[in-house]
Amino acid sequence: QKEVEQNSGPLSVPEGAIASLNCTYSDRVSQSFFWYRQYSGKSPELIMSIYSNGDKEDGRFTAQLNKASQYVSLLIRDSQPSDSATYLCAVNFITGGGNKLTFGTGTQLKVEL
Amino acid sequence: SQTIHQWPATLVQPVGSPLSLECTVEGTSNPNLYWYRQAAGRGLQLLFYSVGIGQISSEVPQNLSASRPQDRQFILSSKKLLLSDSGFYLCAWSVGGTSGSFTQYFGPGTRLTVL
């Protein structure tokens, strides 16, 4: 089992809809969770971080964390064509993780007009 | 504010040639520094990370090496490039010390093509 898993997609949603991106992680003690957006040919940029169970909202983005079920998700409300990108989930595992993040392979999102 | 630079932006090198990629960070002291490689259509592979000058941890055995000659400078090198070294090389930094923040911020990347 990969340590951080994401569906590669593409996930296609119509403009204005809610996009839901999911990420599961292995059964290791973890403390920090991140979502990055990566446009084609560009470097990843941080969207959100979340540290405790529940929801965290920032504008059109909401991160959801459920440590018991080992998943973290990202909701994008009112999706826009400019949201079309690959979204990377990253986890800091306490044991053996140190200062490192473990990344999933990303989910490609396509927002269609 | 903090900024991270990488150069060159693109590079085309023949097989067997040497490599040197540079990364510098501004606006912070004693950062943790990271080198990643992203092959076409693949995820991020952590190659090296450093918590201080001269302190390098290697994640993947390969023909690459890294050095940190100054606090905010991180260099990725190779003596002889392989075709499989092609990819998008990303440098990242995070706050150092025991702050507990593991957020990483990425540089613009270097796209390397080995022919």
Q: What does the main sheet of chain A amount to?
A: 6 strands, mixed
The parts of chain B where pLDDT drops under 50 for at least 5 residues are none
Radius of gyration of chain B: 14 Å
Helical fraction of chain B equals under 10%
What is the number of helices of chain A? 0
Which outline of chain A best applies? Answer: globular
Strand content of chain B: over 45%
| Average predicted local confidence, pLDDT of chain B | 92
Indicate the radius of gyration of chain A in whole angstroms. Answer: 14 Å
Please give the alpha-carbon distance between the first and last residues of chain B: 38 Å
The number of E-state strands of chain B comes to: 11
Query: Which pair of chains has the greatest number of interface residues, and how are they split between the two chains?
Result: A-B, 21 and 19 residues
What can be said about the biggest beta sheet of chain B?
7 strands, mixed
Described by the principal axes of the CA atoms, the overall outline of chain B is globular
Report on the structure:
The complex is a heterodimer of chains A (113) and B (115). Chain A has 113 residues and is mainly β. Chain A is built from no helices and eleven strands. In chain A, strands 2, 4, 5, 9, 10 and 11 form a six-stranded mixed sheet that branches. A five-stranded antiparallel sheet of chain A has the order 1-3-8-7-6, with no helix packed on it. In chain A, a hairpin with a 4-residue loop joins strand 7 (61-66) and strand 8. Chain A is globular, with a radius of gyration of 14 Å. In chain B, strands 2, 4, 5, 6, 9, 10 and 11 form a seven-stranded mixed sheet that branches. In chain B, strands 1-3-8-7 form a four-stranded antiparallel sheet, with no helix packed on it. In chain B, strand 5 and strand 6 (55-58) form a beta hairpin. The interface between A and B is medium-sized, with 21 and 19 residues.
